Each structure stands twice: as C-alpha cells, then as structure tokens.
Protein: FAM86 N-terminal domain-containing protein
Organism: Penicillium decumbens
Amino acid sequence: MAGSIRTLAVQYFQLVDPPQLALPPGNVLVEPAVQQALYEHMFDETLTPLPPTTYRTRVLKQILARIEESITDPEEDEILDTLMDSWGNLVIQPKPSALQQAQQLSHIKYTAPLQSTPITERTITILESRGLILSGGTTGNRTWEAALHLGSFLASPAGEALVHGKRVIELGAGTGFLSLFCARHLGVKGIVATDREPFLIENMRECARLNKTDGDLPFYPAVWNWGTALEQTPEMGSMTEGEKLEFDVALGADLIYDTDLVPLLISTVHDLFSNYGVRLFIIAATLRNEDTFRTFLTACEDNDLTVEVLPFESTPAEEQTGFFHSTSIPIRTYKISRA
Ligand SMILES: C[S@@+](CC[C@H](N)C(=O)[O-])C[C@H]1O[C@@H](n2cnc3c(N)ncnc32)[C@H](O)[C@@H]1O
C-alpha cells in the first residue's frame, strides 16, 4: 500500500477527526488505482472493525468531493463504481442522533508509529466512547493524547527496552490502550491494567478478547482505587515473588489533571516503590495547567522521588505515522525513581 494511502487508512480506523485526515491531493485521488486502493483498504464492507456509519459517510463525502474537484476531463476521469456503491450504501443507513453518537461505543483500531524494525504493522483494537470526556464519574472512557504519546515512546526501541520482559502495572488505565499494546506487542512478562472504575475493567476484558492472539495475552485488568490494597487474582501468578505481587515498572498517562489528586497519587507511587518492588514509574502528562503539574513535581521532590524528563518529543501531527494525536498542548514523559 502506498505511504499516503496507508497513512489515511490508519487515521481512518483510528477515527481521526475528518478535517485532520491527511487526504492525498485531488490529482492523486483521481487515479483509478488509488480509488481502488481506498475502496479495498477503507470502504470494503468486509473489513473489520469498520468505523461507525456516520464517520465513514463523512470521510467518503470528503474524498468524493476532492475527486470531483479534480476531474478535468469527464471522458477520462471518473469515480470508480466501487466507491460510488459504497456511498450509495452509506447514505441510506439510519444515522444516530448527535447524543447517541457521543455515547456510542466504537471499535477503534490503533496502529503504532512505523519503526525500521519491526516492519510489520502493530495494531490494537479498543472499544471506547470517543465523544465522552467525563461520564459515570470518570474521564477514562476514551484514550487520551498522553497515552498515545507514551504509546509512541514505548513503540520506539528505547521505550520498548524499558518494559520488554518486565512485570508492569498501569495506574488509571482508562480504556486499557497502553497496557494492551504492551501485552500484545512489547513482550512484557505481564501487565496489570488498573483503574478504580469496575465498568472500565469489564471493558478492558472485552478488549482483551478482541485482541486475542493464538496464546493468552499477559494482560490482567484489575479494579484498584489508589490508597487501597491491590487485590491479587489467580491470573496474576506470573507477577508474584513468593506470595507477594511484585512489579518492575509502573506506567501512567494523564493522571495529573487536578491538584486535589496529587497527594493520593504520590502516596500510591510511594506504596508501589516500597511494597510492590517497583523501581521505575514512567508517566506522561499533558501540560494543560502548569500549576497543577508543578504541584506534582514539588510533591515528588518533597517525597525523595527523583524526576527525570525523558528526551522524547512529540512528533508534529503532520509527520506522525501512527497513534495519531494532537500536540497543540505540550505532552511530556517523565521517569520517576526513588532518590
Ligand atoms: C484522564 S483519564 C486517563 C486514562 C488513560 N490513562 C489515558 O490516558 O487514556 C484518568 C484515569 O484515572 C482514573 N483514576 C482517577 N483517579 C483514580 C484513583 N483514585 N484510583 C484509580 N484510578 C483513578 C480514572 O478513572 C481515569 O480512567
């Protein structure tokens, strides 16, 4: 698949907002071979998981408009029947209301940024409500930019080296995106994906079924409310030392959005270092509010935790090749260890 079609298809299955899609120029889209590739890789109804009808309709409408604008000779240039048939099928589908769309759980296929090795695509499918910012008392119904940023770092050789073969725990995992990526593609020994919301844990179990490979994924979702004891389940057997749960690395993305959360998060990190064997906490933060983040950094210093910024910058949005996310608000990744 040509690079520009690959980028567009990967963005499409990640349900990137249509105005942000990297549509090839009209003189490329008008080519019959390109239109056929678009059909085969994006609109063929046998592809799974297909994006919601409303989304597919919006994207195809944009593509068809661009092709039409570029038709200079109607005798020579045309829109392929396969794409027109797809359009015909889409427009007759019933459309959910804006509220239904916001609440709808969609299958979102995330593809990791390209690396020189491996050259195969690394994808995971997550069930999430993209439109829900806060619902059921949690912000964990959708995958946030900091998780996509941290996922991009972990997909790089330097990032993978930090988790490969390790026992990992994720805090506030939300949709489970990061943990599933680690379990499916980064060779972790095991990963416990935690969140305080039981319905998010159930959703992660469903996502594990969606991403099942030949063997069982070393992915163990578990309810954990910071400040309480983490309950061990039989499936976490590979993460125990004697009778005790032990981890090497902890992960967290977008956990510091309110200063009120900082003391509890800090004491939880302390608990992980003191009682669960963790030696490294890798956390990605979207710097929406400098004061909130400074409160966290100061609390780390006051608690003898060493904070190091990882030299991993966000790839500008137009150069991203996977785990597409906005970089309009800076995102930083930190390594926290015990001083
Ligand atoms: C902004 S979301 C981030 C979700 C995910 N890490 C991501 O970046 O896509 C914050 C997550 O932290 C979880 N959370 C907040 N406070 C928590 C607590 N006290 N104990 C456990 N999880 C908590 C929320 O339920 C939510 O899923």
About this structure: The two ends are 49 Å apart (CA to CA).
